[in-house]
Task: structure prediction
Amino acid sequence: MADSTQSSIDIAADPATVLDIIADFEAYPEWATQVKRAEVLSEDDLGWPLQVEFELDAAPIRASYVLEYDWDVTEDGTGTVDWHLVSSDLLKGLDGTYTITAAGDGCAVNYKLAVALKLPVIGALRNKAERTIIDTALDGLKKRAEG
Result:
């Protein structure tokens, strides 16, 4: 992932709980405030979402898009969740990874994100949008898991 932004957070919940929250896309508007809608379009044989359609409002980025997911996780919830852009009205690239590791009585989550817009945007604005998306998502994930 070239030109990506990343951040980590410690969460006082077990990795499986955090993974379940990440996989429950239709609940994202309840805790990921920039996600206005999320709909699972397809699942794999184990029930993991493969493609998900989103509507995002993370000024200056407002977009509808479909992501494809790869779930490399264990039964205890540790591992990685990767995604990449399938289609979008505004984005030409959206690649990300959640990495969940056990840490003490809870877990640590690292979120890495790279956004590429179809329209030219100053790098600093793109980085700010990536940082806002990541920070909001990690804070929301922590509140949801610990709530």
User: Anything to note?
Assistant: Residues 13 and 106 are 5 Å apart (CA to CA). The helical segments are 15-23, 28-31, 123-146.
